[in-house]
Design brief:
mainly beta; globular; eleven-stranded mixed β-sheet; about 250 residues; single chain; seven-stranded antiparallel β-sheet
Length: about 250
């Protein structure tokens, strides 16, 4: 059974959430269905059937498995060549720790040296808001690095957008293939600071003001409008949000 703890208080940031994806818990998440997404250079069609809860995971646990693969029905997909699933929180939060036990997308046909197509992008978006002319965002980006910062599937991007700053991206070479297995990705948000950690090791820290309540998203999408790519699978064991208490 899915474990859920939500403590409702007056402020969004006082809400605690834990979900291990044993059921499709619609009190925590919205699961996109029959939705066309056009982001940057990518076109993806989201279907709820592409996300399976209580699924067997490659680490022996059960949880959420999202499959991105070629669309089998061009009319249904409204021009998108790839189908996936998009999961977004219903409740906003601000300061606190956002944790995701997650295996980045990999092609299940190659378990010895897991890889994924360059144009399949995955994000753990701990927070996103674009309201009242203020853009706030905090991300882990997991993709094959196209910008020359390191070996494919070894580099994560630590990304954010503050109240009064442009978009910030920092690339960190982890020194290993992050698609090989599960890792604990954590974004710690404090007044004036954001910190990114992998497996309890801090990989980047930035002094920045991000003050607006944001929703969390689990994203697996195509970054191409005209490319069909091999099927890939992303796996999620659990998500936890712990509010910050000064």
């Amino acid at each position: 059974m899915s474990t859920l703890l939500i403590v409702f208080m007056a402020q969004a940031q006082s809400q605690e959430v834990y979900d291990n994806f044993q059921i499709r818990n619609t009190s925590i998440w919205s699961y996109a269905d029959h939705k066309l997404s056009h982001v940057e250079d990518g076109l993806t069609y989201y279907l709820s059937t592409q996300g399976e809860v209580g699924a067997d995971l490659s680490n022996g646990q059960t949880g959420l498995r999202i499959t991105i693969e070629p669309c089998k029905n061009a009319t249904l997909c409204h021009g998108a060549l790839m189908v996936s699933e998009h999961v977004e929180s219903l409740h906003d939060a601000v300061y606190g720790d956002y944790e995701l036990m997650f295996r980045a997308p990999y092609e299940p046909t190659n378990m010895t040296h897991p890889q994924c197509a360059d144009e399949i992008y995955s994000y753990f978006t701990a927070g996103y808001s674009d309201e009242n002319n203020v853009w706030n965002e905090m991300n882990f980006g997991l993709r094959n690095d196209p910008r020359g910062h390191g070996e494919a599937s070894h580099v994560v991007s630590c990304e954010c957008h503050g109240d009064n700053t442009g978009y910030k991206e920092n690339y960190v070479d982890l020194g290993y293939n992050f698609r090989d297995g599960f890792h604990l990705y954590k974004i710690s948000h404090r007044p004036g600071e954001v910190k990114w950690s992998v497996d309890d090791k801090t990989v980047y820290k930035l002094d920045i003001n991000i003050t607006h309540a944001m929703h969390t998203s689990l994203i697996v999408r195509s970054n191409s409008q005209n490319e069909t790519m091999p099927k890939a699978v992303a796996e999620y064991e659990y998500f936890r949000y712990t509010p910050y208490t000064p």
